[in-house]
Amino acid sequence: DAGVIQSPRHEVTEMGQEVTLRCKPISGHNSLFWYRQTMMRGLELLIYFNNNVPIDDSGMPEDRFSAKMPNASFSTLKIQPSEPRDSAVYFCASKISGNTIYFGEGSWLTVV
Amino acid sequence: GENVEQHPSTLSVQEGDSAVIKCTYSDSASNYFPWYKQELGKRPQLIIDIRSNVGEKKDQRIAVTLNKTAKHFSLHITETQPEDSAVYFCAASYGAGSYQLTFGKGTKLSVIP
Questions:
Q1: Which end of chain A offers a freer environment for a tag, N or C, measured as fewer CB atoms within 10 Å?
Q2: Which of A33, A38, A43, A56 to mutate to test the interface with B (most CBs of B within 10 A)?
C-alpha cells in the first residue's frame, strides 16, 4: 500500500492567497484526520471525518479554514485567505476500525 | 477533555545507554496509548502501543509501561543507537475506535555516538 498521500509536499504562498492541501487516505480506511504541527503547539487535530462525514471540526482555528471529503478516497483542506501564522506542517492521517492512525508525509506550508 | 503531559522535552544519551520518556494523562477513561517516532522532516510513525488491560509491552529494544492508577505511561529504549535520534510523541485516547487522540508535546532524543 502506498500509504496516505498528500500534496503538495511544500508550498510557499503570499499572504492573502488561497491554499488548498490534498489528501488520499489509505484504501479501505473509513476515518480521515487533518492535523497541524507547529513548534509552539505541537500536533493539533483540526478536523475528523468518518465515512466521508465531518464529525468533529472543533479544532479548525477559524472560518478561514475549511475541509471537505467528497468521497472515500479524497479530502481537501483549504485556507482562504492565508496568513503568516498559518505557516506549519499539515498532516493528513487515516485509519480503519481500531486505534492505529497512519500519517501522510505532510504538507509544509509557508505563508510570507 | 484529555490532557497529556510529556517529559523531558529534550534528552541526550550516549550510544548504548537507555532512554526513558514519561507521559501523564488526565482522563481515567483513556484506554489506548500509542507512541510515535518522528524523524526530521518525516511523518510521525507508530512504534509501539499499549492498551489499558496490559501493564507492559515489549518489542525488541523498545518497551512501554502503563500505570493506570497513577495515570502515567513510559517509553523505554535500551541499547540506544544513533538511528534512534528523533522526536518521540506519546498520545492517549479513549473508547473503542475513538478518534480523539491527544498528543504530548514531544521529546527530542539525541543519541551521541
A1: N
A2: A43
